[in-house]
Amino acid sequence: MEMQAAAPEVIVERQGAIGRLRLNRTRALNSLNVPMIRLIAEALTEFESDPSVAAVMVTGEGERGLCAGGDIRMIYESGRERPAEGAQFWREEFIVNSRISAYPKPYIAIMDGIVMGGGVGISAHGSHRIVTERTRLAMPETGIGYFPDVGATWLLPQAPGEFGTYLGLTGRDIAAVDAIHARLADHYVPSAKLGGLFSALAALPPSAKVVDVEAAIRSVSGEAPGSSLAPHLKAIDRCFAFDTVEEILAALEAEDSDFGWETLALLRSRSALSMKLTLDLLRAGRKSASLNDCLEREYSATLGMLANPDFYEGVRAAVIDKDRNPKWSVGLSDVTDEMRARFANRDHLPLFVA
Predict the structure, then answer these.
(1) pTM > 0.90: yes or no
(2) Element housing 134 (H / E)
(3) Which residues are catalytic?
(4) How far apart are CA 150 and CA 290, in angstroms?
(5) Is the dihedral of CA 269, 270, 276, 279 positive or negative?
């Protein structure tokens, strides 16, 4: 009996005029690794030059979501002894994030189910970003001693008010309507209508334009269900407008509300060093001229992470032992300028050549 070949971790195929990227690492909730990033990069190149492909669409196989992020277990296991592996993963991932943002054809991301970390990177930079009632989107990195990357320090500052600052520091997950409010998504499509959307897109001719793709999406889109965060947007803007984590915590205390106390408790469970680094990067991102500037800055910070004990402790608590009880190495008052400077070292090959 012949053994069947294992399915690739990214299934690349054509459906009519649509080039499909189907993330297929379902046991790891489609978490990205280097082979997957390379398959995506190769497919983007192929689809870009193929005149029979009008648009590209990325989806996640399985029932749970698009993508839970990058393979942090791999970086945890290799980081101290083989740091070049983690560095190479981030380099190739960030370059793909940039390519998606600048892709010359419509790039349609189906952000159904869990969309976290690196999953945001391969979706929120696209031109057409679709969420459903099952979407749970987050950049949860401060909870693992890391920081929002994959261009999040470019995306989050574009959210209205201080909503992006709130998302980056707390790492909390949000639903479809909040993702649209944050400008991380564009359209709400009920999951029951996704099959119809796929059929409508596949039926488009190779000569289809952006307006044709948008018309197909709008034909099945609707208004997303209400937000539990909407009543707190003014408080978020008040409390997260500061440029130090200490001032943000003090403002939340002054709110003296259930939302303020719950947010305080959440922030106090996060890595102090990660929160300070995240706020630094978000404020720098707000002043940046381009996504690539932010990705270069993030790449420098990722290299510093390979020597950060809080990153390994955070991954241990969340992914390895799963005790959800990280023991952070420093508190807010212990974080020095010297510690923060370690994440700004640009002594590496640039991701992008000017």
Answers:
(1) yes
(2) none
(3) 70, 118, 141, 149
(4) 13
(5) negative
